[in-house]
Design brief:
Layout lengths: L6 E10 L2 E7 L14 E2 L2 E3 L6 H13 L3 E15 L2 E12 L12 E7 L1 H4 L8 H8 L4
Parallel strand pairs: 1-6
Antiparallel strand pairs: 1-2, 1-4, 2-3, 2-7, 5-6
């Protein structure tokens, strides 16, 4: 029997003046369940060898949205993501843009972005867990 070993990954909740930055998924990963394409998501990804979770989230944000952020808080919520023969556990950080720099430069993983209130996010088609982690982040001041 093949054993699946869960992989840690990081996500960044980037908040600025009660709005959250989400990107719209463009990249198609063959491991993804049907329906992931075109959904709103949080920036994030895998943790490289010899990299801390904090370093990974800062790197992933820079790679995916071209933004420098500072970590404000660890979010007390773990996303358990299952995709075919892959399982990941997401470590989530609440981040703020550095120096009010809101310029976003997307990489190929996303096709658009937006700044949304918690109320607006409730109406969006998001990847699993996004709405729940934003709700948890709302409690962090």
């Amino acid at each position: 029997m093949n054993k699946i070993i869960p992989v840690p990954f990081v996500l960044a909740i980037i908040r600025y003046k009660s709005k959250y930055l989400l990107t719209k998924r463009e990249e198609v990963d063959p491991r993804d369940p049907k329906g992931f394409y075109g959904k709103w998501q949080l920036p994030g990804g895998g943790i490289d060898f010899n990299e801390t979770a904090e370093e990974a989230v800062l790197r992933e944000v820079k790679e995916e949205v071209g933004m420098d952020v500072k970590i404000f808080s660890l979010v007390p919520y773990i996303i358990n993501s299952l995709r075919n023969n892959w399982q990941g556990h997401g470590i989530i950080y609440l981040c703020h843009p550095n120096k009010d720099n809101l310029r976003v430069k997307l990489n190929s993983e996303s096709k658009s972005f937006g700044w949304f209130s918690h109320k607006e996010i409730k109406t969006l088609k998001t990847l699993p867990g996004v709405k729940e982690v934003i709700k948890t982040a709302e409690k962090i001041t």
